[in-house]
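Exam review. A common question shows you a sequence with its structure tokens and asks you to describe the fold in words. Practice with the pair below. Do the first one on your own.
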Amino acid sequence: MKDLQAPLTPEDFDALDEALDAMREHDESIPNWEFCDGFLAALVCTRREIESEEYWPVLMGESFRPMEHMEFVLGFKRRLAEVRVLFQEAMDQKPDEVPRYFPEMLDLRGAHLALPQDEREGVDLDQLPPFGAAWAHGFLWAVEAFEEDWAPPRDKELAVVLDDALDAIAALTTPDTGTPSLSMFEENGPPTISEERLHAYGHSVWSVLDLYRLWQSLGPNTQPLRKAPEPGRNDPCPCGSGKKYKKCHGA
């Protein structure tokens, strides 16, 4: 039996990809794993703990039935627990220490160029998503879906921290217009990523940790109690006494 607390292995990630591919044969809207990894990172950052019955319909669609895809569900939750531990660990690190958290981002262009020549024909590299784009889209999808939990804090300085961090993540959704100089798929592979993109990637990782620290420092979001509107002074009292409100409970 698998240890549900153990970090995912490369084989586990492959199994998650395969499970999503199988689901996508019946529903084209099913996201890829990179998108899912961005989504779950946002779940960990969110100000309150969001339960699975809330996030499954947002991520996988209203028709998703977790009990029918338990291998995927357990793998997702293992990764969720792993990311939570890594984020908490980063809270206790010194400023000059490098965090152990690495988003699951795939250099699709590098992966394509690593294929045999006959399997590469007919694919336009410029049409493939840039490095980190799917992950960033997944993160921002969760932010938009649970926007009340991501409402800017009243403190103006903290609100700026929030905006800057989200902007850094959103930057990964834009095209990589720099000159390719390195590969994130294999060390000596053909260059597919620019130095600017690599910098944007690093900035996004630190920004995610900033978001986690921000919401952890503020605590769960508390909504004000909604007070029912009071009746007019000459209206009947809602207690049912038959008297006017001003002569009864409004006195």
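Now try the second one, then compare your answer with the model answer below.
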Amino acid sequence: MITHQDLKQLQSLTKVPALSILLPTHRTSPDNKQDPILVKNLVSEATKRLDKEFTSRQLEPLLKQLETLVSEIDYPHTLDGLALYVSHDFAKLYYLPFPVPARVVIDQTFATRDLVYGRHREHRYWVLLLSQASTRLLAGTGETLEEVNDENFPMQMTGPGATTPLPYETDSSYRDDRYRRFFQQVNSALTLYENDSLPLIVGGVERQISFFQEVSQNTQAMSPRGYAYAGTLRGNFDRATIHELTPQVWSIMQSVQEAQQAEALQALDDAMGTQSVVSTIGEVWRLAHEGRGKLLLVEKNYHVPAILTEDGRFELVDQPGGTDVMDDAVDEIIEVVLAKGGKVAIVDDEVLSIYQRIALIFRY
């Protein structure tokens, strides 16, 4: 699963050639049998295009990286999309919990727009499983959970009361202070992962949750760069598998999403009363680019291609494709609203049928 940090790293790399291969994949058989064939075809296309632009000597390190990366694809455990990024000194693949169009991009930078848009469309959240033995962080996208394994997580408490015995004749306050210090470290590490205010589910035994809530402001209220406390899972999850955790986590997130959607629709009703809403995509486009978008509501599967005419007018077209056509104007609008400080609520299909599937509450 790709994180905000991954995107920042990919977008910062500018070594030519930067090869990006993206494709939709399948979670189940027999559909997933076609995935290796598509990968092979896209790799062949990439190699042919690279051969036309670069010498064999220039390409040798990159092609070795690509061959190794392709061999590492775990086809039985793919999700809805796959992204491979390769340059002379960088190679990484991502299993994506959302589909992306099949394409090969060779440029000065990696192609990340589809990943940015996919993240906007899906409900994302974090799951923090507390334990002095191994505090775990899981990234959630829709019903998909993936464990974070990096320099921060899993995080183990060390020293007295953990990897070594407590000093002789220490009281409970000393032990509690040790736990508080550890969970302060956990909280500090957690704030490194997102700038967004994403929902956070906290799991652990009652005492651990209590200590974490005591030292963490983020679990009490949403802060501009923090987390929205979404719920708790009580128990010991040191050995819990993703498969075991998913139903419990998803049950909490469904409730969170229902509440978020209800709140957004109530805001829309209120804004209708003050006539501060537009619901044609052309007007939404215009106000979004003027920086007036306060809250954008859009149905999850609403996509539409469009163009900007020579005189700057926004027009829908029948089919995506071509250098002048925005394959999905809705995703462009989402990006603009967020970039200009607005919020976005992705709602269920048909919820906005009377608003033509999209609505923008504007600031003034």
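Model answer, second protein: Residues 277 and 361 are 5 Å apart (CA to CA). The chain has nine helices and 15 strands. Full marks require stating both points clearly.
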